[in-house]
Amino acid sequence: MTRLRQNPRTMALAYRIWANCQIHGWYRTIAEVADALGEPVSTIRTIVKARGWQGRFRAVSPTTLGAYKFTRINLTDETLEAMS
């Protein structure tokens, strides 16, 4: 665990993260939790890392995963000539 200053705001936000995940489940991304709590992703990520909760979260959202799929494009000489 990373050392994080334990001020009241940090402790309250850690509790909000925990409570939100207890209700909605831990199998979500940090970005989804940040969105649900209305907090910056970087802040949530810092607290999650400090608490050692990284392994509880999903690494990538299904919609983001779909965005990185590559589509094979077959280009023929005629297609390339038409594009120029």
Largest sheet geometry: none
Overall strand count:
0
Instruction: Give the N-terminus to C-terminus distance in angstroms.
Output: 56 Å
Whole-number total of structural domains: 1
- In quaternary terms, these chains amount to single chain
Unreliably modeled segments: none
Task: Count the DSSP helices.
Answer: 5
Strand content: under 5%
Instruction: Give helix % range.
Output: 55-70%
Q: In words, what does this structure look like?
A:
This protein has 84 residues and is mostly helical. The chain has one domain (8-83). Helix content is 58%, strand content 0%. It is built from 5 helices and no strands. It has helices at residues 8-24, 30-37, 41-51, 62-67, 77-83. Helix 1 packs across helix 3 (41-51) and helix 2 crosses helix 3 (41-51). The termini are far apart. The model has no long low-confidence stretch (mean pLDDT 81).
Spell out the blueprint of helices and strands.
Blueprint: H1 8-24, H2 30-37, H3 41-51, H4 62-67, H5 77-83
Helix pairs in contact: 1-2, 1-3, 2-3
Can you give keywords for this protein?
elongated, mainly alpha, 5 helices
Short description:
It contains five helices and no strands. With 84 residues, it is mainly alpha-helical. 7% of the residues are buried.
